[in-house]
Design a protein that fits this description.
The protein is mainly β and 120 residues long. The strands form two sheets. Strands 2-10-9-4-5-6 form a six-stranded mixed beta sheet. A four-stranded antiparallel beta sheet has the order 1-3-8-7, with no helix packed on it. A hairpin with a 5-residue loop joins strand 5 and strand 6. The longest helix has 4 residues. It is globular. The model has no long low-confidence stretch (mean pLDDT 96).
Length: 120
């Protein structure tokens, strides 16, 4: 069975840092472009970042320079290091293979439970 388990969320003050992790199983992780997505209060499911199979990263403009995504294929894991957190970063964060995500299958809530990030 496919499993995506997000962890590492918590409550931080603005300007603080958190590192999220997502551990995957049940599919070919090493050949999958992985993405992080988030859903804030009253918002839709938004793309945050992605990482290719060879480690190239892409970020939405609002997090560029503050967030850093990495992957560890030995452990089927992707991480999202978040620094200089802002109030608007507060959301539930999800990971998913980018290829799986579409209008009928949003990343937020379709597979993993997500991990809550609260910024005050």
């Amino acid at each position: 069975d496919v499993q995506l388990v997000e962890s590492g969320g918590g409550s931080v003050q603005a300007g603080g840092s958190l590192t999220l992790s997502c551990t995957a199983s049940g599919f070919n992780f090493q050949d999958s472009i992985m993405g992080w997505y988030r859903q804030g209060p009253g918002n839709g499911c938004d793309f945050v970042s992605s990482i290719t199979t060879d480690g190239m990263t892409y970020y939405v403009g609002s997090v560029k320079g503050r967030f850093s995504m990495t992957r560890d294929n030995a452990y089927n894991r992707v991480n999202l290091q978040m620094k200089s957190l802002k109030l608007e970063d507060a959301a539930v964060y999800y990971c998913a293979p980018v290829a799986w995500v579409g209008p009928a299958r949003p990343a937020c809530g379709s597979w993993g439970q997500g991990t809550q990030v609260t910024v005050s």
